[in-house]
Known about the structure:
By secondary structure, this protein is α+β, with helices and mostly antiparallel strands. The chain is 23% helix and 27% strand. The protein has one domain (4-149): ph1033 like domains (ph1033 like fold, Roll). A hairpin with a 4-residue loop joins strand 3 (43-48) and strand 4 (53-60). The longest helix has 13 residues, at 129-141.
Amino acid sequence: MNTYWLININDNNYNVLKGRSFDILGFPNSYNKLTNKIAKKDNLVFYISTSKVFSGYAEVTSDKFYDDEKIWQEKEISPYRVKIKSKKILSEENYVEASDVVPSLNYVRKWPPEKWELALMNRVHVISHNDFMIIKASIDGAGKKLKRNNKKPRGKNL
């Protein structure tokens, strides 16, 4: 059975991930126990905490492994890693505002609606299939509204 993960990442580390073409994801020592559950074919959704947006989703393509090469722009090395493959990554202008999506998520219902950011503070979250599908649908639909709204009206020019 697949597990669905929400990955909270800051702008700097997201840009590192983007620069690497979304090939690898690292977790700090404090998340080693939780991420022992991560496995091939699991799904990830990226939440950029500094911008409060969802930017895309990916699939895990390897088992978790240890590597202490410094990749991320932080003090801690995040040596527990998995290889990933992006499935859909939005351009910055199409990022999905988290505030538009989180009211529909079961995961954040424990928190007052105006404090939804507290639900996503940790770097790694296991979310339900349903919550993943809600976020995925928002990501898949991003940009489509923009394209529809920019269509030229049909009909004859006068």
